[in-house]
């Protein structure tokens, strides 16, 4: 796997589906982006970011033959795009999917929730970036619409800010409860008056289950409380971005 530390999802995906999550370790960026920052939009030296991206592509190609990842300009929305073959094209979207072999789909996060998707036959893969706004507005449901049958979809929840650290205001809780009163179970009162601790993993599981997904995995890695491995915007402010990347080989 080259010399780059990569997290591999623990899920029963088909053998032709490959998925990885980067950590903050193994790149060339200086503080506060140290060291494997993959985000071009966070103030880091673009030369260093491109070197990190090149290193990542080499690591992916040690797993299986693939192109450089399809990057997105993430806007906390629900737009889903198909991965292309032009690395210069960076569409405004928060989820990306493909049936094309060797075409990695990528999202970047530093507290928001990355969610991998694949069907049971390994014909289609996708990944979504779910901050609370996108999650509430339906980015996971929009991604699932790319699959013919959500009952045959597997989902894996990647590293995100954990329920002990994700403090939000009344407006966030109210927005989720307006969509589903059952979302109240994912919020507990914070020690700070008028605030709530939100479980983004529980909220995602609720949405996926309601959309027909029965096979949901992951959801146990907190970016905020693991500074050695993960970037966290809530913890550090100016910081780097990890990537969650999925692609498929020929069946």
Question: What structural keywords apply?
Answer:
13 strands; 251 residues; CNF1/YfiH-like putative cysteine hydrolases; 6 helices; four-stranded antiparallel sheet; alpha+beta; globular; six-stranded mixed sheet
Secondary-structure map:
Layout: E1 6-7, E2 17-22, H1 46-63, E3 80-82, E4 95-98, E5 105-109, E6 113-119, E7 125-130, H2 132-137, H3 139-144, E8 153-157, E9 167-169, H4 170-179, E10 187-189, E11 195-198, H5 200-210, E12 215-218, H6 233-236, E13 242-248
Parallel strand pairs: 3-4, 8-12
Antiparallel strand pairs: 1-2, 2-13, 4-7, 5-13, 6-7, 6-8, 9-11, 10-11
Short description:
By secondary structure, this protein is of the alpha+beta class. The chain is built from six helices and 13 strands. The strands form three sheets. It has a six-stranded mixed beta sheet with strand order 3-4-7-6-8-12. Strands 1-2-13-5 form a four-stranded antiparallel beta sheet, with helices on one face.
Structural description of this entry:
This protein is an alpha+beta fold. The protein has helices at residues 46-63, 132-137, 139-144, 170-179, 200-210, 233-236; strands spanning 6-7, 17-22, 80-82, 95-98, 105-109, 113-119, 125-130, 153-157, 167-169, 187-189, 195-198, 215-218, 242-248. It is globular, with a radius of gyration of 17 Å.
């Amino acid at each position: 796997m080259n010399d780059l530390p990569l997290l591999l999802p623990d899920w029963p995906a088909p053998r032709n589906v490959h998925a990885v999550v980067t950590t903050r370790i193994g790149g060339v960026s200086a503080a506060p982006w140290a060291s494997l920052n993959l985000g071009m939009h966070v103030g880091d030296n673009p030369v260093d970011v491109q070197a990190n991206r090149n290193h990542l592509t080499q690591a992916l190609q040690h797993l299986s033959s693939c192109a450089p990842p399809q990057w997105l300009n993430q806007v906390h929305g629900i737009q889903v795009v198909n991965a292309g073959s032009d690395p210069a094209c960076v569409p405004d979207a928060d989820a990306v999917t493909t049936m094309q072999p060797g075409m990695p789909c990528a999202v970047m996060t530093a507290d928001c929730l990355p969610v991998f998707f694949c069907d049971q036959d390994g014909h289609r893969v996708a990944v979504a970036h779910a901050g609370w706004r996108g999650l509430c507005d339906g980015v996971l449901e929009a991604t699932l619409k790319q699959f013919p049958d959500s009952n045959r979809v597997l989902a894996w929840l990647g590293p995100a800010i954990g329920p002990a650290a994700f403090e939000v205001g009344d407006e966030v809780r109210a927005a989720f409860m307006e969509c589903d009163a059952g979302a109240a179970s994912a919020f507990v009162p914070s020690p700070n008056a008028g605030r709530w601790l939100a479980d983004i993993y529980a909220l995602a599981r609720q949405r996926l289950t309601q959309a027909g997904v029965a096979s949901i995995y992951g959801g146990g890695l907190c970016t905020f409380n693991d500074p050695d491995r993960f970037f966290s915007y809530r913890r550090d402010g100016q910081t780097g971005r990890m990537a969650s990347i999925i692609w498929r080989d020929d069946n």
